[in-house]
Design a protein that fits this description.
The protein has about 200 residues and is α/β, with parallel strands linked by helices. The protein has eight helices and seven strands, in the order H-H-E-H-E-H-E-H-E-H-E-H-E-H-E. It is globular.
């Protein structure tokens, strides 16, 4: 079972959340993501995509803080989704040393830069905000291990698409995991750029 092969803290949090058995999507996706491959995760709402995103990041970071630069980045569509995901992450990172930070376009970029500089492990933000941080040298990706994109359909919009392309061109090496309800030709096109040799995990309705 995927949960039983995860870090002990994650297993404890799953019990606390009263989640005993993985969904079909989680059973298929977690081992592939753990392998380090780039992955397209396609599944309907309610399949456990967001929980999978959180669990695999915690597993990758071994549930402990290291250094100052983010080792995992999660990109979401907007401020509301960023804050909601941040609150969910906090439920899973309790009793760990992991530092989770949330940023978004409405938060002044200088505030984000100074707070990130103090040291974080997981950065939750939007593509536009992340791109702006890059342009102002406000975030380092030297330690980045995993970049996940939640509900990635929003990336088909030109401004968001351009932002993710700019971001990934600035990252030397990391694992990419993209979660979406359905594949779109624009998302598939990422294989030509940063989703090299991506695995495809798909669960039908």
């Amino acid at each position: 079972m995927p949960f039983k092969k995860l870090h002990a803290h994650i297993q404890e949090r799953m019990i606390f959340q009263s989640i005993e058995e993985p969904t079909s999507f989680q059973s298929k996706s977690i081992p592939v993501i753990k392998s380090g491959a780039n992955v397209y995760c396609i599944a309907p709402k309610g399949s456990g995509k967001t929980t999978t995103l959180i669990l695999t990041i915690l597993q990758k970071l071994k549930c402990e803080a290291i250094g100052n630069a983010p080792r995992a980045v999660v990109l979401v569509e907007n401020k509301e989704k960023a804050l909601a995901l941040y609150r969910t992450f906090l439920d899973y990172t309790k009793q760990t040393s992991l530092r989770v930070y949330v940023g978004y376009e409405q938060l002044h970029i200088d505030v984000q830069k100074s707070e990130i500089f103090e040291g974080i492990d997981i950065l939750i933000t939007t593509p536009k905000s992340m791109n702006k941080l890059f342009l102002l040298n406000g975030v380092s990706t030297s330690q980045l291990k995993l970049l996940s994109i939640d509900d990635a359909e929003f990336l088909i919009q030109k401004s968001e698409y351009d932002a993710i392309m700019s971001i990934t061109q600035s990252i030397l090496k990391c694992q990419y995991v993209l979660y979406t309800e359905k594949m779109h030709p624009r998302l598939k096109r990422f294989e030509e750029y940063f989703m090299e040799r991506a695995r495809l995990i798909e669960i039908k309705k």
